[in-house]
Amino acid sequence: MKEKIAIELKNIVFGYLKDIVNIDDVSFTVKQGDYVTLIGHNGSGKSTIARLITGLLLQRSGDIEIFGEVMTDDNVLRLRKDIGIIFQNPDNQFIGSSVRDDIAFGLENDCVPEDKMEGIVEEYSKKVGMYKFLDKEPTNLSGGQKQRVAIAGTLARHPKILIMDESTSMLDPKGKREILQLIHQLKKENPELTIISITHDIQEAYESDHVIVVAKGKKIMDGKPDEVFSDSKKMVEIKLDIPFFKRLNMELEDNGLDKYEANSLDGLVEKLCR
Amino acid sequence: MSIKLNHVSYTYSPKTPFEYEALRDVSLEIKDRSFLALIGETGSGKSTLVQHLNGLILPSEGEVQISHYLLSCENGKRKYVDLDRQEEFKGKKYRKKQFNIRNLRKYAGLVFQFPEYQLFEESVLKDVSFGPKNFGATDEEAEQMAKDALKLVGLDDSYLPRSPFELSGGEKRRVAIAGIIALNPSVLILDEPTAGLDPQGEKEMMELFKKINDAGKSVILVTHNMDIVLKYVDEVVVMHDGKLLKQTTPLKLFQDEKFLTTTAIEPPFVFKAAKALISNGLNLNLNNVKDIPTLVQEIKRIKHE
Amino acid sequence: MNNIALGRYIPGNSFLHKMDARIKIISLIVFFVGIFLSYGSSVQNFIMYGVYFVILFTLLKVAHLSFFSVLKSLKALWIMMLFLLVINTFAVQTGDVVFVINNFAVHEDGLVRTGYIIVRLILMITLTTLLTSTSKPLDLTFGLEWLLGPLKLLRVPVHIFAMTISLALRFIPTLMEEANKIIRAQASRGVDFAEGKLKDKFKAIISLIIPLFVSSFLRSGELADAMETRGYDPQGKRTKYRRKHWKMKETFQIIGCGCFLAAIILLAVYKPDFIATVQGWF
User: How many domains does chain A have?
Assistant: First the structure.
């Protein structure tokens, strides 16, 4: 079975200001149905890439293809219907004056018939666990709850691609867990949904299908988590966090204790205590 | 200089339908040179507590003592007692003299979460000097205090004339923190100062607070990050539902498994790893395990004996 | 009885609360027309104003609002009204002399003029407060949008105004929370928002306004991105989630409005003598 390509970036160059290059010749491919994580230090260009993919920004050169179609001025509005994006700040993407109104916002924009809207609003509020909060106002909701509403409103438009632009960065640990669990569940329910998660959570990256690493506007690494995280020293060099055992192994190696390197707690106990 | 909370309770919007009891009978002493972490879920009362420490909020019940000032509420009216001068100020005005609430703010410097939003001046120097000027420093004094504070947070003189708005997020954070350090408070209170920073930024910031603590100031951190708690902090205060549940050392906290399960606190992984090794026969000294490097040092020590 | 902070929505279940916002706005306009029509002599006019006050009192009662709290909220305007009274008595020298102070004659017309201004102001403010206290801000926005609908034919972007207003309403509580946060942060840096010389107070306000402005600009940028990526096209067609229904009740109410309007116009055109009419009844 041939795998469909959801997104392809070909030699993208972009700069916010005339003499500056913020995205320097970046290319990568995202397969349909994959859970991709995009990681990099603050200011590396991750969010810029997300904005380029959704057509909010226009690249200086290079092509962006969504399901094989090159994005141009003429088709960007149509292509955008297949892409949903959840931003970082829960307040600044909550448009409606209540949960219902916010979920319905996207439906109104898509000219969904009025008599169908109520059903869709209720259905998607249930999917994210916000059915009981339908008439609540945003000031009475937590960050995690607001992000759940954003997810409902975005999914209600049936996008084929979902981009999470650091959607859990501003949440407390409980909120972060809520959202991650929700996304994993949604992925299970929609195996064809392609998810791109821009994140600082190294554990999340470790568990994804495909990791893309950017630093200073360039793509540094691109591949399966095992391949990407094998070079721990490089990760530290580009100011990225690395999974616990990788860090531990690096430290053991630096202290001449290579023989105790392990990839799990059981493995560590095995090597040190027997 | 110590700060004491004595049976403090605080209710938001009393006698309205929005009444909310945020603090219940909390007693706490911040001794000199403490390095303390305040942990608890959102809604546990941490930020309300912390705002009592610099007099931003006055208790509904109970007393707060900041240095030689005693604050309380009597019959709904604020009461300030200057213990040194044996003077009392009640309500808003006391004859012609009025209690200057600003006296309290300089003892405890409070840095809120994401403090970048408090920046507003034309230049970094002006913004950081703003605080000292409000407390009566002359322009020269304030500028010197600002320069010293900026150096402490790792921003050199080249930053002085720049506009705070053109700086990166991490740099803005440091300018905002410098703005409070410049006040030279005896106690520095920070709410999630490393939120949103990358690992390098987080490390630099924590080393800064350690330096400040070593130099003699108390540092209080409100945090969710247990790695930081294990590595840097001497004491942990656990808040839940407006009550102070526990005040103890990080090690004692992480070893109290029953407490951890009831409060859903997750010890740092390095601690869990050390515990697993110990329970399997490796004789590590938990007191020495603060982070990965120190864990490895302990392993080295044991294996070479 | 509820105290009114002028303009705030006060939840309730009265007849007025349940009335469609569009009809309330239309009624407001009709009333305003009635307030400015002339019914003959000044005595006639004041009698009409008396009738209006009676109607208003009844409506206020229906909505469980207190007239006296409206008056209290008008405290700020008392000074202006006093000022107007003084100006008018000096400026208008026509009409019979009512009384003399210190060799200065106060003429009837001056007092009448001021009377008109004050009474009309109170009527208008009370009416508007009645509207805003019994209607949710969002309902008012939708009502206005519907009423201004015909302007779309003149290429006026009514729906964009409506979106702007509803967004502003959505963010008022958020902005207030943010202002609160900034105030506390600056207070921790020694800013005293209450006391201090004028220069200090000015600086204090700047330390609040600038961060608020900056964050609002950033916020609006992010909001625009969010709206765009959710398919919002200001020029494009959109369906409406919140539809307003028009039932029999609304038709009756609108007819009632029309009758009221017709009545006051007839009174203004024919200017019947009220006192003579009432005397004729007895």
Answer: 2
Distance from CA of B131 to the nearest CA of C (A): 5
% of chain C residues with pLDDT over 90: 20
Same domain, A169 and A250: no
Q: Which residues of A touch C219 (CB under 8 A)?
A: 89, 91-92
AA letter at C220: S
At residue A39, φ and ψ (nearest 5 deg) are -125, 160
Contacts of B228 (CB under 8 A, 6+ apart): B37, B194, B202, B206, B221
The answer on A253 and A229 residing in a single domain is no
Q: Which of B299, B300, B305 to mutate to test the interface with A (most CBs of A within 10 A)?
A: B299
> Degrees (nearest 5) of the Cα angle B276, B279, B285?
85
Distance from CA of A16 to the nearest CA of C (A): 15
Distances (CA, A) of B84 to A132, B68, C159, C246: 56, 6, 65, 73
Examine the domain organization and report whether A147 and A36 are in the same domain. yes
- Rounded distance, CA A42 to CA B121, Å? 25
Instruction: Quick: pLDDT tens for C225-278.
Output: 999 999 998 888 888 888 777 888 888 888 999 999 998 888 888 888 888 888
Based on the fold, state whether residues A169 and A258 are members of the same structural domain.
no
The number of residues making up chain C comes to: 282
Q: Which of C74, C78, C85, C83 is nearest to C124 (CA)?
A: C74
- Give how far B177 is from chain A: nearest CA, Å: 19
C188 in reach of chain B (CB within 8 A): yes
DSSP readout, A152-178? HHHHTT--SEEEEESTTTTS-HHHHHH
Residues A229 and A266 reside in one and the same domain: no
The token duo for B173 is 């954070």
CATH code for position A168: 3.40.50.300
Token pair listed for B255: 């070893």
Q: What are phi and psi of B109, to 5 degrees?
A: -95, 125
Chains that touch A (3 or more CB pairs under 8 A): B, C
Q: Assess whether A156 and A58 both reside in one domain.
A: yes
Helix (H, G, I), strand (E, B) or coil at A31: strand
- Which range is most confident: A133-147, B65-79, C143-157? A133-147
Q: What is the span of the domain harbouring residue A256? A: 243-274
Q: Is A85 on the interface with C (CB under 8 A)?
A: yes
Spans of all domains in chain C:
15-135+245-275, 151-229
In chain C, beta strands by DSSP E = 97-101, 104-107
Q: Closest Cα partner for B180 from B207, B219, B210?
A: B219
**Same structural domain for residues A236 and A259?**
no
**Joined tokens for residue A122:** 């209720």
Rounded Cα gap, residues B70 and B62, in angstroms: 10
pLDDT above 90 (res C280): no
Does an H or E element contain A145, and which?
helix A143-155
Reported confidence tier of residue C141, pLDDT bands at 50, 70, 90? confident
Mean pLDDT of chain C: 84
ipTM: 0.90
Q: Which of C280, C278, C279, C272 has its CA nearest to residue C41? A: C272
Q: Enumerate the residues of chain B whose CB falls inside 8 A of the CB of residue A244.
A: 269-270, 273, 292
Partner-chain residue, chosen from A87, A97, A109, that has the shortest CB–CB distance to C232: A109
Same domain, residue pair A259 and A156: no
Residue A191: predicted pLDDT = 93
Single out the residue of A11, A131, A127 nearest to residue A64, CA to CA: A11
User: Per the CB < 8 Å rule, is B180 touching C214?
Assistant: no
Helix boundaries (H) for chain A: 46-53, 76-80, 99-109, 114-127, 143-155, 173-189, 202-206, 225-229, 232-237, 244-254, 265-273
Close Cβ partners of C254 (under 8 Å, ≥ 6 residues apart)? C23, C26
pLDDT class of C212 with cuts at 50, 70, 90: very high
Cβ contact, residue pair A105, C239, below 8 Å: no
